[in-house]
Design goal:
The protein has about 325 residues and is an alpha/beta fold. It has helices at about 30-35, 55-65, 95-110, 130-140, 160-170, 230-235, 235-245, 260-270, 280-290, 295-300; strands at about 5-10, 40-45, 70-75, 85, 90, 115-120, 145-150, 175-180, 200-205, 250-255. Helix 1 links the parallel strand 1 and strand 2 (about 40-45).
Length: about 325
């Protein structure tokens, strides 16, 4: 029997032209997660990379979503050596490790945590000290699924990949396959590999070569300004299906978070992989028609989204969360 394939995005807060207008301001922004979960079965929490959420906030995310809804969570930036001191990457403090592990508790206890995502920076190159960090990462999460995303070619090029693959298998870590501009050393080749029977992840950053090395753009979504075509996404479908048919669950996550591009491409993947996602909101349909020139056939048979769930918190007492 084929394993589960879940399709979603790498946040829930940033999708413009997806949410109703009344969810775009004030305290009702916290209802974005409720709305998102009516259409998709999984989300990657990415605000945890920039700031560690309090357990009470994470618990509110669990309460706002159906029992079957799944979360991946991105590791805090010092754990992946993004933080620097005097120009050199610094390890996390004891307090940062403690607080990040505490944030995982509500997800883990509710059975909603699928993977802890470690996205390492381009300067995390294939060296002995970096491999020691991978071992340290695995030891930090003895009971969690750990997913590893590389952003430097040294883990792949010049016959390095077989040793990288063996290391991830030895650590029982999930390799994160990446679709990104193939430009310079700060990217990974587009491929899917099963390094743990527990999970396989494909993550999509867009293919905008002009902005890939410009994280300082005018807006936070500048780097990921790319709307895939169905044909481009279809290049990944055989590998995704093959992984699932081998019995490995697959997460397909869209990180091209400009406008509603991520959710549009998530709905595209839903159709390509026969995931039977609900009919998307009207602005998403309009974007698809604008791109393709026609209404795709799958939209005609898509079921309406489920009804909104009741607010789980007493009025005026919910934790305000703008994350995702």
């Amino acid at each position: 029997m084929s394993a589960e394939i879940l399709v979603g995005t790498c946040n829930w807060a940033d999708h413009k032209d997806f949410y109703p207008a009344d969810l775009e301001k004030g305290k009702r922004q916290r209802e974005k997660l409720d709305y998102y979960a009516r259409f998709f079965p999984i989300v990657e929490i990415d605000t945890s990379f920039y700031g560690i959420p309090r357990p009470a906030v994470v618990d509110s995310w669990v309460a706002r979503t159906p029992p079957s809804f799944a979360f991946n969570i991105k590791a805090f930036r010092s754990l992946t050596r993004h933080e620097r001191e005097s120009g050199r990457p610094r390890p996390p403090t004891t307090e940062e490790v403690r607080d990040f592990l505490s944030a995982l508790v509500p997800l883990r206890e509710s059975g909603r945590l699928r993977a802890v995502h470690y996205q390492f920076p381009p300067w995390f190159t294939n060296r002995p000290d970096a491999r020691d960090v991978l071992l340290e990462t695995r030891e930090r999460h003895p009971d969690d699924i750990v997913a590893i995303e590389f952003r430097h070619r040294s883990w792949f090029d010049h016959d390095a990949w077989p040793a990288t693959e063996d290391l991830l298998r030895e650590l029982d870590c999930v390799y994160v396959g990446v679709d990104a501009p193939q430009l310079g050393s700060g990217t990974a080749p587009p491929m899917l590999a099963i390094t743990s029977p527990k999970l396989c992840i494909a993550r999509f950053h867009g293919r905008n070569r002009r902005t890939w090395y410009r994280p300082d753009g005018p807006t936070s979504d500048y780097r990921f300004n790319y709307l895939y075509t169905p044909d481009e996404l279809g290049e990944w479908v055989p590998a995704i299906r093959a992984a699932a048919e081998r019995g490995t669950p697959v997460h397909v996550l869209l990180n091209n978070n400009r406008s509603n591009y991520g959710v549009v491409n998530a709905f595209d993947f839903g159709a390509l992989l026969d995931r039977h996602l609900p009919q998307p909101p009207q602005p998403v349909i309009e974007r698809i028609v604008e791109r393709d020139g026609v209404v795709p056939a799958w939209l005609h048979s898509a079921a309406p989204p489920p009804e909104a769930r009741p607010d789980p918190a007493p009025h005026g007492q919910a934790v305000l969360d703008l994350g995702g």
